[in-house]
Every structure is written in C-alpha cells, then in structure tokens.
Amino acid sequence: MQKYIPDRESEDLNQPSLASHLTSPESSDSPKRNSDPVDTPPPAYSARAPSDACYAHNAIENQAVSLTAAFEDLVLSDLPVDPSVDTCLAHLKLLFAIQWMKEDVGFADGLWGLWDAQAGPMDPVHRRRPEKVKKEKDEPEPSAEEKLREENLKTLSLIREKRWALFIARAVHRYETWWKSLMDVFPQRPLSEADMEIPGFVMYEGFPTDRKAVFRWREDMLPPLDVLMVWHTHMLNPRAFLEDAMLAGLRDFWNTGMPWRLIDKAIDTDFNYTVSYECKANWTRKTGLAWSNEDDPLTKAVKCPGCSTSMQIPWTTCGLPADHRSKKPLDLKAGNKPPPDLSGHGFGDGDLMHICPGCGVVIRKELLSVAKFVGDFKLLLGPKSRPMPGTVLCPKTGKPTTSATPPLPSAHTFPNRLLKSDWNSVRTKILDLTTFRENKNPTMDDVRKAIEVFLRDPSSVSLINGPFTRTYQLPVESRIAVRKMMSRYWENFSLFALDLCGAVMRQGIFVEKMCRLDWLHSPAARDTMERLLTKYKRFMDIMQASQGQLLVPTLDVDLAWHTHQMSPSKYYCYTVTKLSRFVDHDDKIDEAKLSEQFEWTSKTYQEMYGEVYSECTCWYCETIRSEHISGLGKIFSPKLSKQGKIAESFHTSGAASLRTCAPTPCQPHPNDN
Predict the structure, then answer these.
(1) Per-residue pLDDT tens for 219-267?
(2) If we measure between CA atoms, which residue out of 476, 322, 481 comes closest to residue 394?
(3) Contact at 8 Å (CB) between 630 and 643?
(4) Alpha-carbon separation of residue 536 from 83, 96, 398 (angstroms)
C-alpha cells in the first residue's frame, strides 16, 4: 500500500505567509488530489460524461499497470546530465520522500517539547486532520465553545509548523557541518583574489567548465534526507551555489551535482530513504552528528563574537516538559485562553536572544550577521586574501569574469578594494563593531552606513581604483557589486550566500504541489515528463528570443527547470551557451509583477507555438493527451490546443464532479530574466 498525502488546508504545515508570494490570481482553484488510495485506479465515470471523456476514461481503465511502474526501473547516472524523463521521475521521488519527512515531523507529538495538547481541547477527528470544516448553509451559528475549538485547531497547525521550522533550522546547521567536511575530502583550495586576475584559470574563470573535475560518488557518502533536502534547495539558487562552491574550493562537488542513481536506489516505492549501516557510520565519523536530525543535541554551540566565549544555546525555548499539562480544567466558555508563545528565543526560533556568560552581550541574529561580515572581512585581509561573498561573479552575467580592460580591475571586485583600502578608516570602523566599544548592539545597518559615506564621496573613486580611473563617478556595476555583497548578510548569518532556512520553507510549497498533482503515480507519467521537457525547451527558447523580459514558468516547466539545476555544470553550460549568461532562479518576486509577467509569458507561448501555456495537468487530462485524439480537435480554434478543448468539455460535465481536478493554470514561478 502506498502512502498518500493528507489533504490539508494551508493553516496546517503549509504557511500562508510563505505561500502567498508564489500564488497567481488563477491558482486559487488549482487541482487537489482526492482521498482515494493511490494504489486503486481512478473511479469510473458515469454516462453523463461526453463521448470524448468516456473514450479517455476507457483508456484509463484499460491500462492495467502498476502505479509504481513509471519509476521502478529508471536508467540513471551519478554523473552530471541534462534533464531526461528518468531524471525528472527520480526528482519527483526525492520530492515525495521530502514531503513524507515533513508529514512525519509535523505530526511528531512532543518533538522538542512541542505538544499537541498545548493547542487545547478539540474533536479527536479534527486533531488528526485539522482542516477547517465548511459551515453548511442552514447550520446554526457555532457556540462559543465550538468557536474556541476552532481556534484550537488553528493553534495546533501553528504548533506543527513550528516543529517543521525547527527541523529545518537544525537541518541547515547539519548541512553546514557536512559542507565543511567536504572541504577536507576535495583537494582544491579556496578561492583567492589572485585567482580572479588570471584569465582562464581553473580556480576562477575555468571553474564552471572544467569537465575533468568529477567526483565519484559512493553509497556510503550519501547524507541524511534532511541534509539532502537543504542541498537540493541550495542548488535551486544556481548563482549562490556556484559562488559558495568557488569560495570553498569545491569544484568537483559542484560540477558533479546530484547523484541520481544513488538517490533513486536509496528511495523505495514507499518513499522511505534507506541507506547502509556503513553510510550512517561514515556520516557520523565525518561530521560528528547523529544520522537522524531528531537525535542531535538540543543545544547549538556558539562562540561569542566579542569575547570568544563558547556557549550552548538551546535550539528553542518554546518546549515544555512531558508533564506540562495543567491539572486545572480548561474553561471552554471563558474564551480567553492565550495561545502558546511560539516565537521563542532559541537559536532556531524567530527571536534569538541569549546573554553571553563571558561579557554579558546579548547574542541576537543581527549581531551574528555582523560577526559573519567581520569574519569574511578578516579572510579578505588575511594571507590568502579570500574575496568577499557577492564579489565573485559578474552581476550582469552570473559568470566568473576577469577584467575585460586590464590593467583596470573588474567592476564587481570593487567592494574588496574598498574594504582593503581603509579609506576614511572604514576598515577600522567595521572591525571595531564586534569589540562593542561604542555600540553594544551592532547591526548590518551600521556596516551599510560606514560604506555609504564612501559612496557619497566622488573623489574617493580614483583613490580606490587607482590612476587608471578616468572619471570620479563610480561605475554602475560597482554600485551593484556593493549591494550584492551586502545582500549576503541581510537577515543571514549562515555560511552561505542566502538564508537556506527561508529558502527551504519557500521550496516546500513547490514540493507539496508536486505531490498533490502526483504525476509520479499517473498511468501517463512518462508521457507527462516528455511533454514538460519539450515545454521547458520552448520556455528557454522564449527567454532567448526576449532578452530583458521576466518569464514565469508553470509547475510542469519548473519541474524540468529544477531538475536541470541539479546538474550545475550542465545547467551552466546550457544557459551560458544559449543566453550568454548563467540564468538564476529567483523565488522572491513581487506578486503584482509575477501576475503581469505570467500573462505575458502565456500570451507569448501561445503566439509562438499555437498551444495553451497553462493547462490542467491532473491525471485525467494528462491521460487524454497521452492517447490518440481523434480528428475532433481539428474543428477547434488554432489558438487553443485540441487537448485543452476536450479537457474543458470533461471539466464542465457531470462526470467531473467525481474528480477533484479543474481547468486552472499551473502555478507560476519566476525566473531572473
């Protein structure tokens, strides 16, 4: 029996605040999976369906195949590859495994002291599945007691979201530890400023195109699933992942990408992630961490940025002991029970606050961001002169590029020269921030102010760039480079170019949508993958033909796009060859802009290919497209696909009421174009 995703509302594990930035105007009615077990065929449709729908239904019934057949015998490699039907299916398997992990964590009552009982009393059925119950037309107004129980359901959802958020914070820490251990495995050294001045040097310009740099994966090298999830999200930010790999000297690791053959072998048809004892032992030996996220310590070791005192900060201060339940009965009629405080002051909570036992300074996330900046600054000033994050890639192309006009230096390396110059004592001012001489609560805003003083002084440009500067005006590229450098630290104190906690949460929205569509178990799974690969190629062709436009992919395009990014070197060569730039993947676009550009993308796609861009991709409609459609489609308008018309006739029929799909556009998602 296959596992199946509970059909929950957004107030459960999916956070509306995170989902909203990906929601298009058309997506509110996106198809949801029904509650039928996935190992049974779709239900029979009645005679009310039109003849074409009956034809497709019969085709579904006649396909007496296993629902796991599409992904049981995939042909895969552990080397970098362009996206294929098999890699897309393997990718879906990974997403399903991640979703099951999320379900298990969210429903683990008592994990990290977060108890379902903190939400208060409620119907046992609703406690198990806390969806909002729709009020019937003639149903009387709920009593105060019922309203309180409804509020308790919402609180229960928040508690389960909190467990998942803590799990992700711990997973990112585990990924950081694994990343550092990889630096001992790979022979390459970290990037230096000198490397960035040698044209074609393999440590810089030649880093993304070195085909000899291949890592030979073994099964005992695989990380735990939670770490794999964070790595997956990291790769879905292509420029950030490339920059981080270059700064760490992980060329072989970056070039090889996701070892699909090993990943597929580790995930069974029930989406359990299973590895050998040797793999688990190797993980613990290399990282010092437990294989299971939940088995790691309840505290995080942190060194004070000021006095260097080591301290143990709890991951959360929201937890309660097992005997937390109050002996005093809850007054349901009072209606004034305060919800549990889930903000917290732990390392994985939203409001970190911990007093250093050595110097008394309050450890906050803002302070840790400053400490990260100061630490990177010291590496720049050190003997190896490691460049600052955000100054490695050309902002315009996303490529590692040496100066096109030597001896003039590259514009995107300007922040390094500024910080090293100590112009107007900027070096001293920034380094002093973690001494707390003048400011007990420094933030990145203090760093910004110190740098802005320079940017407002035109005469300082020639001082920094040298006698070759012909103008006192700072080039636009250099200003962008400064902003790019600063972006690495705003609300981010991790080892990486972006806050991976937030990125994993955002990516979770896409993961759940993929699981709800459940193409993996569809009888037409392989045909669906073929179509979305074709659509992805067309998407990139439109991008090539419309430079400067923001394109918004649908869910099916996004799956192929994401799969391509799992082989970074292949994706780099493809986009640079086709578009002369390394295409990034931005998931934080303004919703109004997203909606406008989705409409533009849809119109352009239809004009270029004569097909509807956003079609329903439920099992039924995908099976229709997989079958041989009769000449019926010829009478339809050339601006609409014949499959779309036939699908529309089904969705408006009585038979459609038996299924939970609807003819709505797939979810849009932005790119950086």
Answers:
(1) 999 999 999 999 999 999 999 999 999 999 999 999 999 999 999 999 9
(2) 481
(3) no
(4) 10, 22, 21
Beta carbons within 10 angstroms of residue 28's beta carbon: 8
d(Cα 533, Cα 552) in Å, to the nearest integer? 16
Amino acid 603 reads: K
Res. 475: pLDDT tops 60: yes
Secondary structure (DSSP) of 132-197: PPPPPTTPPPPPHHHHHHHHHHHHHHHHHHHHHHHHHHHHHHHHHHHHHHHHHHS-PPPP-TGGGG
174 contacts 287 by C-beta, under 8 angstroms: yes
Separation between Cα atoms, residue 270 and residue 383, nearest integer Å: 52
> In 3D, which of 390, 399, 396 has the Cα closest to residue 372?
390
pLDDT at 661 over 50: no
Contact 493, 451 (CB under 8 A): no
Residue that is written with structure tokens 């020639």 in the block: 462
Nearest 5°: the CA angle 437, 439, 443 is: 130
Please name which of 578, 577, 640 lies closest in space to residue 606, comparing C-alpha atoms: 640
Contact 386, 379 (CB under 8 A): yes
CA–CA dist 391, 376 (Å, integer): 12
Q: Which of 198, 200, 208, 196 is nearest to 250 (CA)?
A: 208
The Cα–Cα gap between 90 and 230 comes to: 17
Q: Find tokens 């005997």 and name the residue.
A: 323
Q: Which residues contact 325 (CB under 8 A, 6 or more apart)?
A: 117
Which residues make Cβ contacts (< 8 Å) with residue 214, sequence separation at least 6? 79, 80, 252, 255, 256
pTM of the model: 0.82
Q: Round to whole Å and give the CA distance between 88 and 558.
A: 11
Q: 548's torsion region: left (phi>0), alpha (psi -120 to 50) or beta?
A: left
Closest Cα to residue 523, out of 45, 56, 96, 6? Answer: 56
Those residues whose C-beta lies under 8 Å from the C-beta of residue 28, and which sit 6 or more positions away, are none
Q: Return the closest-CA partner of residue 231 out of 268, 181, 278.
A: 181
* Angle (nearest 5°) at CA 409 between 406 and 412: 135
Tell me: the pLDDT tens digits for 547-595?
Answer: 889 999 999 999 999 999 999 999 999 999 999 999 998 777 778 888 8
- Cβ neighbourhood burial of 2 (10 Å; 0-12, 13-18, 19+): middle
For residues 624 and 616, give the distance between their C-alpha atoms in angstroms, rounded to a whole number: 11
With pLDDT > 90 as the criterion, what percentage of the chain qualifies?
Answer: 57
Could you give the C-alpha distances from 451 to 439, 479, 487, 613, in angstroms and in order?
A: 17, 11, 14, 46
Q: 609: exposed, middle or buried (C-beta count within 10 Å: 0-12, 13-18, 19+)?
A: middle
Strands 354-355 and 362-363: antiparallel
Cα gap 612→641, rounded to integer Å: 6
3-state class of 231 per DSSP?
Answer: helix
Other Cβ atoms less than 10 A from the Cβ of 538: the count is 16
Burial of 337 (0-12, 13-18, 19+ CB in 10 A): middle
Cα(45)–Cα(229) distance, integer angstroms: 39
Other beta carbons within 10 Å of 83: 25
| Total H helices, total E strands in the chain | 23, 4
- Between CA 440 and CA 367 the distance in angstroms is 10
Query: Which residue's structure tokens are 């505290």?
Result: 299
Task: For residues 315 and 346, give the distance between their C-alpha atoms in angstroms, rounded to a whole number.
Answer: 5
Phi, psi (deg, nearest 5) at residue 103? -60, -45
